[in-house]
Design a protein that fits this description.
The chain contains twelve helices and 31 strands. It is an alpha+beta fold.
Length: about 575
């Protein structure tokens, strides 16, 4: 269901960093734990490790690559592993064993991430920052079918804008990389006629073949260093690394034909299309089949979003040589933090938080450490858990229902007269006349306008609680012959408690900054999440609001600038 609310003046985004809530004062005995694996998760893990160190936990994590982390786990040389893909039984590239070799384990979803395509193309002395690449074009670039940036397919992807006749240098991961697995899984599924002959077999691999003009580097930091060093380079890497060094990444074409940037909010929306294994008896419980992202026709989907998993040791006795009660306690308390308060600290570094249902399922996995060692205290897992548990006895009952089931409905509600009236901040103050972040000289300034979006709510009466996502996108602002891009318009969403009774854990969307403030931001020119309720949540009414912000050049003519904000509600 879709409604529109018109914005009749201007608005501004105030960026805020969400910090973790204070954690428990751990009283149980702890011991240092060591993990290895995914570089995709390394920046999130660094954040988690630093946070818990202040609380007295000692955790060491080394990003050796997903393949090496799984091998370390199987050889019992780490206390846990992080991997972007599950064990596969054997490595199809090398024929080597890729299993836990009998070491008992459970998968624990950790964060949502995205495999992205950072690039380095300089035109007239300036780094190109906006690039669109279809899946077909990406496949041809990385299989040596497209070798120059002036190729007509790249020009067509970018609306006729031609890049220079500069050689393309693909930059690959030299180690067994989860990003490589995610990218080649996509290629094998969507472009087998290109990938199969190039790779020698139409199958995914963590080791991208090094051929043609390609170069390789170890680790995500190494890949980003190579990209930054070579004009004409493009690589595949985790979004967090490109974001950390300020390098642009390509917007990727999805099955709807839309080009989508790999923002955390796009990753969150995309992962609602993942098919998660919900069978607790399965050895792959909580892992996800991502192939539905490749063909999803939702224009908001970034097709290379994915989950990162902790491989958690759950054995005891002879099956588990490394763990002690103190180490298991550290595993429980560390990953309790990572799955709860830690999820609020990672969006600004490029990751997508887990939905509440996966947090709750992850807690169930952590409880298996208590099953292995009853001395491990898992009482902390009672918080952040959206589910309850209990035992008891009773008398069997039955009832016969012959009435058609109630299905309910979900609807977007916009209060009558809703509009956003933006008012200019005092131009005589620094806040009202800041330097444009897009101006490298620091001489150009902006006028700032702020306002508030209110009167918006989502009512969901569906018993099945499939969840919902409410997103927004703005048109450009127009004043006569002058146009201000919607990329310079942003918001900070929030949930409204008064009058809301939605069940579960609805969440507000992330803050979106104006591009004049943050150069890489798409602002509200792109589709951005205002609020959402994951599966198992949202039954009832949830009111939402947003602080709005608009930056315009201080050279803009006076007058009233108007635009339209379109809100879109999507079920599930």
């Amino acid at each position: 269901m879709r409604r529109s609310a018109s914005a009749t003046a201007l608005s501004l985004l105030l960026t805020s960093v969400v910090t973790a809530a204070g954690g428990p004062a751990w009283g149980a005995a702890h011991a240092r734990i060591e993990g290895t694996g995914s570089s995709m998760a390394a920046n999130a893990m660094s954040q988690f490790v630093a946070d818990v160190q202040q609380k007295g936990l000692q955790v060491v994590y080394t990003a050796t690559g997903s393949a090496a982390g799984r091998k370390d786990f199987a050889n019992q040389v780490n206390d846990f592993a992080i991997s972007d893909l599950p064990f596969r039984g054997y490595d199809p590239r090398t024929g080597e064993d890729d299993s836990s070799r009998g070491r008992p384990f459970a998968y624990l979803p950790l964060v949502g991430s995205a495999t992205t395509f950072p690039f380095h193309v300089v035109v007239d002395g300036a780094l190109v920052r906006d690039l669109k690449l279809s899946g077909d074009t990406l496949a041809r670039i990385f299989t040596n079918q497209i070798t120059e940036w002036s190729d007509p397919r790249i020009t067509a992807d970018n609306g006729g804008r031609e890049l220079p006749a500069l050689p393309i240098t693909p930059v690959l991961h030299a180690e067994g990389s989860g990003a490589g697995w995610q990218f080649t899984s996509y290629l094998a599924d969507r472009f087998p006629a290109l990938w199969g002959p190039f790779a020698g077999a139409n199958a995914p691999t963590e080791y991208f073949p090094l051929r043609g003009n390609a170069i390789s580097a170890n680790g995500s930091d190494g890949v980003m260093h190579q990209i930054a060093s070579v004009n004409g380079a493009i690589g595949y890497d985790e979004y967090s690394y490109a974001l950390a060094v300020g390098y642009p990444v390509a917007s990727v074409g999805n099955a709807s034909g839309a080009f989508v940037a790999p923002t955390p909010q796009a990753t969150s929306v995309s992962l609602t299309y993942a098919k998660v294994n919900n069978n607790p008896a399965s050895p792959d419980y909580l892992t996800a089949d991502l192939s539905r992202l490749y063909t999803a026709t939702d224009p908001r989907v970034y097709p290379l979003a994915s989950y990162v998993y902790t491989i958690l040791p759950t054995g005891s006795g002879a099956d588990e040589r490394r763990l002690t009660t103190a180490k298991r306690q550290t595993l429980v308390d560390f990953f309790h933090y990572a799955l709860c308060a830690g999820q609020t600290t990672i969006e600004h570094i490029g990751y997508a938080p887990l939905p509440p249902n996966l947090v709750a399922a992850g807690f169930d996995q952590l409880r298996r450490l208590h099953d292995a060692d009853p001395a491990v205290d898992v009482s902390a897992l009672a918080s952040c858990d959206a589910t309850g548990s209990g035992t008891g006895g009773g008398v069997p009952l039955d009832a016969s229902d012959e009435t058609a089931p109630y299905e309910g409905a979900v609807a977007l509600q916009v209060a009558g007269g809703t509009a956003v009236h933006l008012r200019q901040l005092d131009p005589g103050t620094p806040a009202g006349h800041p330097v444009q972040g897009t101006d490298p000289t620091g001489h150009r300034h902006a006028w700032v306008f702020t306002g508030s979006l209110s009167g918006i709510s989502v009512g969901d009466s569906r018993p099945g609680q499939p969840g919902w996502t409410l997103s927004g996108q703005s048109t450009d602002f127009v004043n006569g012959a002058t146009t201000v891009s919607a990329a310079h318009f942003g918001w900070t969403p929030a949930l409204v408690a008064a009058g809301s009774d939605a069940e579960g854990l609805p969440v507000a969307g992330p803050a979106i900054a104006p591009r004049m403030q943050v150069p890489d931001s798409l602002g509200l020119a792109g589709v951005s999440m205002l609020a959402g309720a994951p599966g198992g949540s949202g039954l009832g009414t949830q009111h939402v609001r947003a602080d709005m912000v608009l930056w315009i050049p201080d050279t803009s003519p006076t007058g009233t600038y108007t635009g339209t904000l379109t809100l879109t509600l999507i079920s599930g």
